[in-house]
């Protein structure tokens, strides 16, 4: 009887342990998807302001201070999101090297060819592959990028 009890106990423990692990994996997946969506939305709002600034200040090269951008009063930039302006074009990038989040940005921007990952100086689009779009050297490799056309 004692052996049967322990066998049943371990079987039940393994069963509930596997349910717990599956639940934790699902929660982590949901958290990652939510975080990717938040960063994507944050980048889209920021890119609009950076793009507007770049087009109005074509001689500017470098990072533009947030105070110089026409950002909505409710906007709070997520840590890791930055900008770079050159030649009348604006680039917004997320430098925390989470390339899988480029898929979320791509989805949120209706598969624009102007979003992806900087790889070897050019934009890599997760759907179409390596593009001919050059990304400024100041933007770190493997950053998720959303740029101007």
User: Overall 3D geometry?
Assistant: elongated
Question: Radius of gyration, rounded?
Answer: 22 Å
Assign the CATH topology.
Answer: Beta-Lactamase
Total helical segments: 2
> What CATH architecture would you give?
2-Layer Sandwich
Q: Please report which band the strand proportion falls in: under 5%, 5-15%, 15-25%, 25-35%, 35-45% or over 45%.
A: 15-25%
Taken in chain order, the helices and strands follow as HEEHEEEE
- The residue-averaged pLDDT reads 80
Oligomer: single chain
- Structural category: alpha+beta
Overview features:
Beta-Lactamase; alpha+beta; 149 residues; 6 strands
Give the topology, please.
Layout lengths: L1 H55 L24 E6 L2 E6 L6 H8 L6 E5 L2 E4 L3 E6 L9 E4 L2
Antiparallel strand pairs: 1-2, 2-6, 3-4, 3-6, 4-5
Task: Give a verbal description of the structure.
- The protein is elongated, with a radius of gyration of 22 Å.
- It has a six-stranded antiparallel beta sheet, with helices on one face.
- It has 149 residues and is α+β, with helices and mostly antiparallel strands.
- It has one domain (2-147): Beta-Lactamase (2-Layer Sandwich).
- It has helices at residues 2-56, 101-108; strands at residues 81-86, 89-94, 115-119, 122-125, 129-134, 144-147.
- The chain is built from two helices and six strands, in the order αββαββββ.
- The N and C termini lie far apart (74 Å).
